[in-house]
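Q: How would the C-alpha cells look for this protein?
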Amino acid sequence: MLKDTATQVSIARDSGHADEAVDPVEAIAGDDAAGLLLLCDHAVADIPAEYGDLGVGGEARARHIACDIGAGPLTRSLAARLNAPALLTRFSRLLIDPNRGEDDPTLVMRISDRVVVHGNAGLDEREREHRLNAYHRPYHAAIERKIAEMTAAGCMPLILSIHSFTHSWRGNDRPWHIGILWDKDPRLAVPLIDALRAQENLEVGDNEPYIGSLAGDTMNRHGTRAGIAHALVEVRQDLITTPGGVEEWADRLAGIMEQLMTLDGLHEVVKFGSRSDV
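A: Here is the predicted structure in C-alpha cell form.
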C-alpha cells in the first residue's frame, strides 16, 4: 500500500532525519544596470529528497506536469547572451507551484493532467505552510530583492518570464510556436508580439495558449502590482527539447530583446491594473 508521503515527511522532520533544505533558487549573475531580469518559475523537475518521488513515476515526472520542459536551459542561454540576471526555481511544480498565489487552489496539485500526485493527497496545513516557507516564499523574496538591487543600480528592470507549453492538449494540437501572455500593461508584451510576428513562418499567440491575468501569479505579483513592464514567454516545448532548439530560440529572443529594451517608457513604474481586478 502506498504510504502518505506528506505524513512520512512530517515524521522525518520531527525526528530530525529529514534532509537539509537545498537553496530553492538558482541565481545567475548579470549586469544589474542593464535593465532586464529573467525568471523561470518551472525550471526543473527536481523533488527534494525528503519527499521521495511524491508517488509519481519516472515517466510522468519527465512530462510537463513536473516542469516546463526546455524553459530552464532557454533561460540560462538567454541570460548568457544578454548578460542579464536570472532567477530560476530548483524544485518541481509538483511540490508547490511558485507561479500561483498562496491562496490559489492549484498551489499544490493532487491531480495534474490526469496523474495522481499521491504525496500531495494527504497534505495538511502544517505541511502546506512548510512548503510555502521553504520553497515558494524564498523564490518570491529573491525576486523582490533582485528588483530592488537592479533599481538601486540605476535602472528599473523589465521582467521576462520564460515558460513552455505542450504541443497538444487533450487531443487538440496547438498551432503556436510561441505565445506571449500579458495583462493590461502593453509596454513590453505588444512590441514583443509585433517583433515575433515580423519574422517568417512563426505562429505567435497573443495570450495563447493561456491568459496572462491570473491573480497572484508571478507576473501579477512582481509586474502588474508593482507597475513594472513585463511579459511572459511560452515556447512550445517540442521546439526546445534539444540543445540546438534552445540555442535557436535563445538567438531569436535575445536579438529581439536587445532592440526592445531601448524603447521609451519601459523602465518606468506605471500601474495599469489587472483584468483579474473585481
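Residues 11 and 17 are 8 Å apart (CA to CA).

DSSP finds seven helices and eleven strands in the chain.

Upvote if useful.
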